[in-house]
Amino acid sequence: MTSSISALCVGRVFGLQKPSLTYLRGWGQGLDIPQIMYVIQGAGGPIVVDTGGDVERSWDKHRIRMEQTPEERPDAALRTLGIAPEEVELVVNTHLHWDHCSNNHLFPNARVVIQQSEIDYADNPVTWHRRQFEHLPGLVPAWRNAEDRVTAVDGDTELAPGVSLVALPGHTPGSQGVLVEAESTRYLIAGDCVDLCENWAGDEEVDHIPSGLFTDIVAYENTIRRIEKLDCEVIPSHDPLVSERRDFR
Predict the structure, then answer these.
(1) What is the pTM of this model?
(2) Which of 3.40.50.720, 3.90.226.10, 3.60.15.10, 2.60.40.10 is the CATH number of 4-243?
(3) pLDDT per residue over 36-92, tens digit each?
(4) What is the per-residue DSSP string for 62-125?
């Protein structure tokens, strides 16, 4: 069964330092990036991949400048496709950084699929990663608002005909992507293993550039080599070109 992917902007982050997305590259440069929610249609009911950040927490808890129009709320953005949030039966979080999973609760009938290794790490991250996972005193991580609907998986898993989870550890221990068989192309929604088109394209020194944030750089390189063998078009997680294109078929 063929599927299509819609990349919906669900908020924008301003003034991010570029090396946070391009490892040891772009010193002194700032980036404005979208937060993107993906909607897969055609393989049964709609599947949502990543639900964006909570704009109410962005500055107070994360020191991130984020804006979100009413139309960019994940539930409102979904309705532009003619889909009500209640119709979504499956949400995938590529990982549990706050900007990818804060709005799971807006999809009340959906199972939320996360790698068990990601849940384990989110429960006890190293000191320097605690803010990204909202593992902070007095703060309940937003993904736990839908914790009763979480389905934990271990490794590659088929979600629907032509739609599969692919384990992509490195950025975080339980990072995962979603491999989608569309009409003309196989696509990989890569999560933050590939933040920007520039990450995948590389530069004059390396064929690919990792994110500036990771838990295991050796696992990360193995993941990059695995993606190379998937014979797919890679869809980055935070590139403006992705949200501008919007449709992947």
Answers:
(1) 0.96
(2) 3.60.15.10
(3) 999 999 978 899 999 999 999 998 899 999 999 999 999 999 999 999 999 999 999
(4) H--EEE--GGGSHHHHHHTTT--GGG--EEE-S--SHHHHTTGGG-TT-EEEEEHHHHHHHHS-
